[in-house]
DNA sequence: ACCTGAACACCGTTCAAGT
DNA sequence: ACCTGAACACCGTTCAAGT
């Protein structure tokens, strides 16, 4: 058992977030529990509640880390491209890659509902916004939007769409009749949407 | 307490499915448990396990009922339209309406992961397919697809997209910076996708 | 001051025992 | 034959008690 003062509050926090992410990656969302996280970092479950208000708050921080990692991946992908259309298609593929490889962590971003009253903190919304900024950049280059409202509309519609194709693919809801590979679906969605946008 | 032979196996099944759907509609997914369902139908929790293999199987049937209801709503909407493009836009709006009004039941369709090995039964995949058939019909009318593969591709890309916009909107992930109403997002997605498809 | 460990009110699931 | 109710192995969360 870890003795007192072995770790600072912030160290315990970071250890717990890392342990939770590892559980999600290795054993899935079903295996994530406060007791298991506590065990993995060598403290009792009570200690977790000295450092986090509750399990929801721990998950919020896990999700924040996931958003950061995902934004980093998309940023790297974005910098590999000059032309906006190939960039957007590649970002969609990268998003799918992450969703597939980190299924549990990715889906927890969207399935984790905070308590009915609670709104996510501002710093969390900022991280979400930073993710969308990766998509906004090539969209701006296309010069297809006039107003700021139109830009807000287009980035949300396109990325909402990409997200949905990935979500349905991972939930196995697209596997009936003819099989279609997800990368091809994403390419169809992005390409057709952008064509429509540029010609409308 | 209900006495033996008060209800047949099938009656108990139907009561349990209805009770579970009611819990989801009134109190959300957090409130759904085998014990609560049993209480609501006047049996003990043990009886539930005589009739369902486990809670996952009960949820599978709840989801089947949700798919039927949703397909019925979309079918009614579809029959109100003659022109394919307005029909597809209206179907997207109807999907959003249902997702919003029946948040817990709708999201359970996608968040409920069966055990790692288990594939959903064929009758469940059939219900999913019937849902997509509502979208396939107006898409066929557009005569924009050549092969059956292309039709399979387009229906999945478009409806995956619509699904994703609804999913992100309900998970509050689109609420930063400028506010954009979801119906407007869906219209942008469907309209641009179809324009791109018809002109590509 | 920091952490434990037991307690409380819940879970899903099983199954001997009752009617 | 049908159903119960207690048991088991888990949960999240709290908090008096220990060092």
Characteristic key phrases:
homodimer; 200 residues; mainly alpha; elongated; DNA-binding
How would you characterize the overall build of this protein?
Two copies of one chain form a homodimer. Chain A contains nine helices and no strands. Chain A is elongated and about 65 Å long. By secondary structure, chain A is mainly α. The mean pLDDT of chain A is 94. At the A-B interface, helix 6, helix 7, helix 8 and helix 9 of A face helix 6, helix 7, helix 8 and helix 9 of B. Chain A binds a DNA duplex (19 and 19 nucleotides) through residues 1-5, 33-35, 43-47, 49-50, 54-55.
State the end-to-end CA separation of chain A: 65 Å
- Tally of alpha and pi helices of chain A: 9
Percentage of residues assigned to helices of chain A: over 70%
Structural class of chain A: mainly alpha
Q: Could you give the count of β-strands of chain A?
A: 0
Mean pLDDT over the full residue set of chain A = 94
Give the quaternary arrangement of the chains. homodimer
The largest sheet of chain A is: none
H/E topology pattern of chain A: HHHHHHHHH
Query: Which regions of chain A contain 5 or more consecutive residues with pLDDT less than 50?
Result: none
* β-sheet strand percentage of chain A: under 5%
Kindly provide the radius of gyration of chain A, computed on alpha-carbon positions and rounded to a whole number of angstroms: 20 Å
- Principal-axis shape of chain A equals elongated
């Amino acid at each position: 058992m870890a003795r007192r003062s072995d770790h600072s509050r912030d160290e315990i926090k970071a250890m717990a977030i890392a342990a939770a992410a590892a559980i999600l990656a290795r054993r899935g969302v079903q295996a994530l529990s406060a007791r298991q996280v506590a065990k993995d970092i060598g403290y009792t479950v009570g200690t977790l509640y000295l450092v986090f208000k509750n399990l929801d708050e721990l998950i919020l921080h896990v999700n924040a880390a996931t958003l950061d990692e995902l934004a980093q991946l998309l940023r790297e992908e974005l910098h590999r491209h000059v032309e906006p259309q190939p960039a957007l298609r590649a970002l969609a593929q990268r998003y799918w890659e992450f969703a597939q490889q980190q299924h549990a962590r990715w889906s927890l971003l969207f399935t984790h509902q905070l308590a009915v009253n609670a709104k996510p903190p501002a710093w969390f919304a900022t991280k979400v916004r930073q993710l969308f900024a990766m998509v906004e950049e090539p969209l701006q280059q296309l010069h297809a939007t006039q107003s700021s409202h139109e830009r807000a509309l287009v980035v949300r519609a396109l990325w909402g769409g990409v997200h949905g194709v990935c979500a349905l693919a991972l939930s196995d809801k697209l596997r009936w009749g003819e099989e279609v590979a997800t990368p091809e679906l994403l390419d169809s969605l992005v390409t057709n949407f952008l064509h429509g946008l540029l010609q409308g």
